[in-house]
Structures are given as structure tokens and as C-alpha cells.
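Support reply, case 0932

Customer input (verbatim):
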Amino acid sequence: MPMKIGQFSRESELSPHTIRYYEKIGLLQKADKDDSGHRIYDEADLDLINWVTCLKKSGMPLQKIKRYVEAYRHNNNSEVTEILGLHLVKLKAQQVDIEHYIDVTKKKLSQLKKSN
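Our regenerated output:
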């Protein structure tokens, strides 16, 4: 079902400004326009932008996301696999670090409770 930028913005939880910026830098393909000149998007665009948002929130830089999107569009599965594999390694390392920080914080809280 086609969506105009307002609905696409609500569905993706991104501002229209961000959506237009992502088009400008090539993360989204230039949207088709309806007879009135309004941008229209489809479910495939929404799926892609939601994945882009996930990658961005998980710490992947926009330049690398752009490389991923280009590889994805060209069905370059080896490059897509490489990019996502390296990102997963980075996320797992961050997970180990975060688990350590949680353990240290719990210990500190436990020590503070014992001293009160």
C-alpha cells in the first residue's frame, strides 16, 4: 500500500527531514511521486528504513550502512554477509563489555548496601 511521507514518517518513527536526508545520501532510493508531486513509499521502503534505523541505533556508522544498502540493492551477498558479520562481532564485544559493567555496578551497589 503506497504511503505519503507523513504516514511513512509515522510508521518509521523518523522525521520527514531525516527521510529526505536519507534519500539525499542514498540510503533510500529517490521516492516515486504521485500526480500531485508528493513522495510515495511502499512496504519495501519501510522494511529497509526500519533495518537502517536498527543498524544505526546499534552503532553502525551511516557510511557503512550506505555500503550495506548498496551491496544489498546489487544482491552482493558476500559483501552484505561481511558487513553484517563484522557488525555482529562488534555487537558481541559490546555485549561482553556491558555485562561486565553491569556486574561491577551490582557489586558496588551490594557493597554500599552492606555499609549502610
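We compared this against your earlier run and they match. Two observations from our side: The chain has a mean pLDDT of 95. Helices lie at 5-12, 16-25, 43-57, 62-73, 77-115. Please reopen the case if you see a mismatch on your end.
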